[in-house]
Design brief:
The structure is a single chain. The chain is of the alpha+beta class. It has a single domain, classed as Aminohydrolase, N-terminal nucleophile (Ntn) domain (Glutamine Phosphoribosylpyrophosphate, subunit 1, domain 1), CATH 3.60.20.10. It has six helices and ten strands. The chain has a five-stranded antiparallel β-sheet. The longest helix has 22 residues, at 85-106. The protein is globular, with a radius of gyration of 19 Å.
């Protein structure tokens, strides 16, 4: 096949450091496609904190504790991701180091936005150099600091957006439609947890072999809720 017969875009996706003629970075777009194929993950702000949730797919012989889907970054910050879980693990470990370094240096907890910017900068760096690939993951950071409650998305390009409610992964379109209809600024913790579970049940068809991982950040404290605690909240 001659070079003339190849599509115009061919060749521009071979390296991250080359823009296509229409100004696109194909490797970043491919990374975003990897996120769209991931298990649905979401976060939403309620009147006193943040809920982070996702579904965990388990084989019957797999130890449930071997898969971490909702991450604690610091006492007051959590994260959830969609895409390549290995990439998420590396970035969360980086975020934890950033948080601890800030605590040691300034003797105060890190702000959610400061932490998200550090991770976003790390992600953006990989869009500049040949021989590297972008992280194939989007991370939602949720937390509470002295400026209030925050829910921040960091996508494969390194771009950061703050949301009141946001979903990533294969069920994101359905989840966002539900959020737009049902989320409100005064939503309570109970209703926020119920809404998160509702969305995951609809988008991931929770059944045998899948379970929900859900965490709440409230009063600057991160906590993963087990099944008994979820039942108590939902009563």
């Amino acid at each position: 096949m001659s070079e003339e017969s190849l599509p115009e875009a061919m060749g521009y996706d071979r390296t991250i450091a080359m823009f296509s003629p229409d100004g696109r970075l194909f490797q970043v777009e491919y990374a975003k496609e990897a996120v769209k194929r991931g298990v649905t993950a979401l976060g939403l702000v309620f009147n006193k904190g943040v809920v982070l949730a996702t579904a965990k797919v388990l084989d019957e012989l797999m130890a449930p504790t071997s898969i971490e889907k909702v991450f604690q970054v610091d006492d007051h910050i959590g994260a959830v991701s969609a895409g390549y879980l290995a990439d998420a693990r590396v970035l969360v470990d980086f975020a934890r180091v950033v948080a601890q370094r800030h605590q040691i240096t300034y003797e105060e907890p890190i702000d959610v936005w400061t932490l998200a910017k550090e991770v976003g900068n790390r992600m953006q760096l990989l869009t500049q150099y040949g021989g590297l690939r972008p992280y194939g993951v989007t991370i939602i950071f949720g937390g509470e600091d002295h400026t209030g409650v925050h829910l921040i998305e960091a996508d494969p390009s390194g771009m950061l957006f703050e949301w009141y409610a946001y979903a990533i992964g294969r069920g994101a379109p359905t989840a966002m439609k539900i959020f737009r209809e049902e989320w409100k600024p005064t939503i309570s913790k109970k209703d926020a947890v119920k809404l998160a579970i509702d969305i995951l049940e609809k988008t991931e068809k929770i059944k045998e072999g899948k379970k929900i991982d859900l965490a709440v950040i409230e009063n600057k404290k991160f906590k993963i809720l087990d099944e008994e605690e979820l039942k108590k909240i939902l009563k």
